[in-house]
Fold:
Amino acid sequence: MTGDLLGEVRDDGRLIALRADTSAAQRRCTLTHELVHLERGILDCGPWLQREEGLVHAEVSRRLIPLASLTAAIRALGGADDRAALAQWLDVDSETLTIRLSRMSSSERTALRRSLARQTLLWSVA
Ligand SMILES: [Zn+2]
Structure:
């Protein structure tokens, strides 16, 4: 593995290599990242590399952090302020969590807010 790469597709998509000295969460995110690259079929995008990487990161964050899981984690931890704990709860690396939180759609934000408020109301009634 060269440089700072955590993983890479080799042998024309027949092999995904993962860096050994990473956490399980990092390997999970990296493997999903490389699989999304393969699914998209764009392994060499030249000048569009940054754009493609951004799209892949966003897709990985949506797949590994479904809204229901994010909601449950925030509820269990009592908030989203402790990002390290939230990432650990969700079994993702901090980069994937940051991307997921920063790219939530307005409808997802509304759904998350409503779900958390509803739960708080239920707790206050119980
Ligand atoms: Zn990539």
Q: What stands out?
A: The radius of gyration is 17 Å. The chain has six helices and two strands. Residues 7-125 form one domain.
